[in-house]
Automatic annotation (TrEMBL), chain A:
<dbReference type="InterPro" id="IPR009051">
    <property type="entry name" value="Helical_ferredxn"/>
</dbReference>
<feature type="domain" description="4Fe-4S ferredoxin-type">
    <location>
        <begin position="335"/>
        <end position="363"/>
    </location>
</feature>
<keyword id="KW-0408">Iron</keyword>
<protein>
    <submittedName>
        <fullName>4Fe-4S dicluster containing protein</fullName>
    </submittedName>
</protein>
<keyword id="KW-0411">Iron-sulfur</keyword>
<dbReference type="Pfam" id="PF17179">
    <property type="entry name" value="Fer4_22"/>
</dbReference>
<dbReference type="InterPro" id="IPR017896">
    <property type="entry name" value="4Fe4S_Fe-S-bd"/>
</dbReference>
UniProtKB/TrEMBL annotation, chain B:
<protein>
    <submittedName>
        <fullName>NAD(P)H-flavin reductase</fullName>
    </submittedName>
</protein>
<dbReference type="GO" id="GO:0051537">
    <property type="term" value="F:2 iron, 2 sulfur cluster binding"/>
</dbReference>
<dbReference type="InterPro" id="IPR017938">
    <property type="entry name" value="Riboflavin_synthase-like_b-brl"/>
</dbReference>
<dbReference type="GO" id="GO:0006221">
    <property type="term" value="P:pyrimidine nucleotide biosynthetic process"/>
</dbReference>
<keyword id="KW-0408">Iron</keyword>
<keyword id="KW-0479">Metal-binding</keyword>
<dbReference type="GO" id="GO:0016491">
    <property type="term" value="F:oxidoreductase activity"/>
</dbReference>
Automatic annotation (TrEMBL), chain C:
<dbReference type="InterPro" id="IPR018488">
    <property type="entry name" value="cNMP-bd_CS"/>
</dbReference>
<dbReference type="InterPro" id="IPR018490">
    <property type="entry name" value="cNMP-bd_dom_sf"/>
</dbReference>
<protein>
    <submittedName>
        <fullName>Cyclic nucleotide-binding domain-containing protein</fullName>
    </submittedName>
</protein>
<dbReference type="Pfam" id="PF00027">
    <property type="entry name" value="cNMP_binding"/>
</dbReference>
<dbReference type="InterPro" id="IPR000595">
    <property type="entry name" value="cNMP-bd_dom"/>
</dbReference>
<feature type="domain" description="Cyclic nucleotide-binding">
    <location>
        <begin position="15"/>
        <end position="104"/>
    </location>
</feature>
<dbReference type="InterPro" id="IPR014710">
    <property type="entry name" value="RmlC-like_jellyroll"/>
</dbReference>
Length: 377, 282, 155
């Protein structure tokens, strides 16, 4: 392959892509089936991919199901997002050592391995772009994120099988990747065989693609790829009306719906953990018993915890109502003020992984005063 | 993307400089002013800004600078010993090491107030982040109209910077009114809430600038009293308090509506805050 | 002091700002000029509230005395403000001590005289109510804030 013209990879060609990435020095991560879910983990080849598995998702529900075909990327999204790699759940910032005249500070070693992400969905590309704004584009960049981001090679795989919880069409982030990737694949499973349309999105991507054993795409391949995306776009399990949503939420902070959702919300923080854009962290201090050395560790935090808004004297957001309102208003409204985009990419994880099935699209509809089509009555 | 990320990877804004405590002064029973030698690269601060002070194994807290931003020498931080970190900070002796990141946050609009009357309203420990503004107002006294400090605190024993306030009052540069919530018999000053001091001072409300810092409840009523007196909303500035961990808008803790108090604040004008201050648990 | 001067003092006092002169004459009939040296008491807790004071100069400390704690000042009253709202409502009894913290000049109004005139002339009564009720509301608000103990170190 010698140009940016789309190409077609066979299954062996895909294996070749994984091997080429590894040969380039990338740790290759991709979807694997573990503990009844599709999670991202190290992969060596096609055998590690969840062939034939799809997912069924709904409010508070996630199940793997056998598809009855050989699709390698036949699921929507699992509980993991690439946030785990770019913005690790747990990161030592620095260590201190006691000295005769006080203490010294030493930055923790942080040399992340270059990593290739295989199977990045369009919604996840959008989520990465959203987190870029948080961690790279403010007055002070986060060097840990910046290093991981610079060393990541993104292989998108266009979504062909949206879940019942998906609404990327509403959020205008998918289902087809529109940039932000190095390479993009569309899995094609039809009479013409099991193959992948390969599109190039960056210089790095082109350099790698040139080394692959691929044939130029024909009009039928391109049409098949477009058809996958169009079919996926038509099968969104959820929708969210986003017109005027910033004002809607910011001007309805005392809406009765917040009390109602608070009656169900367990403040468990699952939604924030699975959300691919939630970025909040706290910092913890540890020291050895003698006080000789200490460390500061950054870890994911959630606006659903009581401690999150603690100031001297007490917690600002003491009620579940206030915490849910903070999360959703931040995600769908304040985010525009802070970062110029929505904090929601429509991946639906918060809906599926909520133990009581709270549905962000339903909550928006309720505050709008609509009856959600998904919930009768 | 890669060029942007590579350029940004240079320094970690979460790494503190190790600075040296050079002095400590007791202000009240539980409030201390810690003097810290400026670390390498310290480029000064503006009135109203804060630093993050860190102690190994204990943690890091935001502490307002309370000294004169124009004065050479140590950086002054006034801290109330209420939590594990602040109590340990307050107990530091000269020679001790302390981690320091900063300065962070927005500043009081001191220069912008030139030509106007300035009303400074402080409640309790809220006087500390206002003192740098008072130093600047005094230093360039001729640039301002009338300048008044209205200060309310718990009891006469809780008055911060008392000698300095008495000296300033004698020098007649500022009109200074202090009131306490309760007092024993030997207190000769006012008793009552700080907003009651407002009718006692002469100022031109429409063109004046008000700087307010104290507990949120106090600031709400102070802002109402200033508005009632005729000060326009954009000319009333409050310093907000929220949980701050990173001070650079990346940890999410200090959000107040769409603002990160650490970088969009802490000093914000009342027109921006008014609607949000009326929402509980925001 | 002449009657005219007394009436002028009443009309010029911030508490009676904008009062119709006719009411000024009525009120003047109950008024006298008074002066307290520092440390003297304007009134004592438990005594009949038969006076109220328009403070013209100086500071008055309103105090409650508690065994072992001495006199606690809960509010100070300054020039342009008033001492005394207990005269307005039964049982017309002072519920605190009012002590001159420094030399205080004031207009004392005889409470019985004022109540009688207000009873006979409801327009005057309403005018007085409109001026005294805000004082009560403001003191209640101040009391709430003091009760919150806003500046106390967090528990």
């Amino acid at each position: 392959m010698t140009s940016d013209r789309p190409a077609v990879l066979t299954l062996e060609g895909l294996q070749g892509l994984i091997e080429a990435l590894a040969a380039e020095g990338y740790r290759v991560l991709g979807p694997t089936r573990r503990d009844g879910a599709i999670v991202y983990d190290a992969i060596a080849g096609l055998d590690d991919l969840p062939a034939g598995w799809g997912d069924e998702q709904d409010g508070g529900r996630y199940r793997l199901v056998e598809r009855g075909d050989a699709a390698l990327f036949g699921y929507a999204v699992g509980p993991h997002s690439w946030k785990r790699e770019l913005h690790p759940p747990h990161l030592t910032l620095f260590r201190t050592r006691r000295e005769a005249d006080g203490f010294s500070v030493e930055a923790a070693a942080d040399e992340p391995e270059p990593t290739a992400f295989l199977g990045v969905r369009a919604c996840e590309l959008a989520a990465i772009a959203v987190q870029d704004r948080t961690f790279l584009e403010g007055p002070q960049a986060d060097p840990h994120y910046a290093r991981r981001r610079a060393g990541s090679f993104l292989v998108a795989v266009n979504c062909g099988e949206p879940a019942g919880t998906c609404f990327c069409v509403s959020m205008e982030t998918g289902p087809r990747a529109r940039g932000g990737y190095d390479l993009a694949l569309t899995e094609l499973l039809d009479a013409a065989g099991h193959r992948f349309l390969l599109e190039v999105g960056s210089e790095r991507g082109r350099a790698l693609a040139e080394r692959l054993d691929a044939r130029p795409a024909e009009a039928a391949d391109l049409a098949a790829s477009r058809a996958v995306s169009e079919r996926a776009a038509g099968r969104m399990g959820r929708r969210m009306e986003t017109g005027g949503i910033k004002a809607l939420l910011q001007e309805n902070q005392e809406h009765a719906r917040w009390d109602q959702v608070a009656e169900r919300c367990l403040s468990c923080a699952n939604c924030t953990m699975v959300c691919p854009t939630c970025f909040c962290t706290t910092v913890e201090d540890t020291s050895d018993l003698s006080g000789e050395t200490a460390a500061r560790v950054r870890r994911w935090d959630s606006c659903f915890t009581l401690d999150f808004s603690y100031i001297h004297g007490g917690t600002v957001r003491g009620s579940t109502k206030a915490r849910y309102r903070q999360w959703m208003t931040h995600k769908l409204a304040s985010w525009y003020d802070q970062f110029g985009v929505s904090g929601c990419v429509g991946c639906g994880r918060c809906i599926a992984w909520c133990p009581v099935g709270i549905d962000i699209t339903e909550e928006v509809a309720a505050i709008r005063g609509e009856k959600n089509p998904e919930s009768a009555g | 993307m890669s060029a942007m990320a590579a350029g940004a990877a240079a320094t970690d804004p979460m790494l503190p400089a190790v600075a040296r405590v050079v002095g400590r002064r007791r202000e009240t029973a539980d409030v201390w002013t810690l003097e810290v030698a400026p670390p390498d690269g310290w480029a000064g601060f503006a009135p109203g800004q804060f630093n993050m002070l860190y102690l190994p194994g204990l943690g890091e807290v935001p502490i307002s600078m309370s000294g004169d931003p124009a004065a050479p020498g140590p950086i002054r931080h006034t801290v109330r010993a209420v939590g594990a970190v602040s109590a340990a900070l307050a107990a530091l002796r000269p020679g001790a090491a302390v981690g320091l990141r900063g300065p962070y946050g927005s500043a009081w609009p001191v220069a912008e107030a030139a030509g106007a009357d300035v009303v400074v309203m402080a409640g309790g420990l809220g006087l500390a982040p206002l003192r740098p503004a008072l130093y600047r107002l005094r230093a360039e006294r001729a640039r301002y109209g009338r300048v008044a400090l209205l200060y309310g605190t718990r009891s006469p024993a809780d008055i911060l910077f008392r000698r300095e306030l008495e000296r300033w009052r004698r020098q007649l540069d500022l009109e200074i009114e202090v009131t306490v919530d309760r007092a024993a018999g030997d207190w000769r000053g006012s008793v009552g809430v700080v907003t009651r001091l407002l009718p006692r001072i002469a100022f031109e409300p429409v063109s004046s600038v008000a700087l307010v810092c104290g507990p949120e409840v106090m600031m709400r009523f102070a802002a109402d009293a200033l508005l009632d007196a005729g000060v326009p909303e954009p000319r009333i500035h409050l310093s907000m308090e929220r949980n701050m961990r990173c001070a650079i808008g990346q940890c999410g803790h200090c959000q107040f509506g769409a603002d990160f108090v650490c970088k969009d604040g802490p000093v914000m004008s009342y027109d921006r805050l008014r609607a949000r201050l009326k929402i509980r648990e925001l | 002091m002449t009657v005219e001067t007394l009436e002028r003092y009443i009309l010029e006092h911030r508490f009676f700002e904008g009062l119709e002169p006719a009411f000024g004459s009525l009120i003047r009939g109950c008024a006298r000029n008074v002066r307290f040296e520092a440390g003297q008491y304007l009134c004592r807790e438990g005594e009949p509230a038969d006076q109220l004071y328009l403070v013209r100069h100086g500071t008055v400390a309103l105090e409650i005395s508690a065994p072992g704690r001495g006199a606690l000042t809960f509010q100070t009253v300054h020039e342009g403000e008033i001492v005394g709202v207990s005269w307005l409502v039964p049982p017309y009894r002072w519920t605190y001590d009012a002590r001159a913290a420094e030399l205080v000049r004031a207009i004392a109004l005889d409470a019985r005289c004022l109540r009688d005139k207000a009873e006979r002339d409801h327009d005057l009564g309403y005018e007085l109510m409109k001026r005294f009720v805000p004082v009560l509301v403001e003191r209640l608000h101040a009391t709430r804030l003091q009760l919150l103990d806003l500046y106390a170190p967090p528990a």
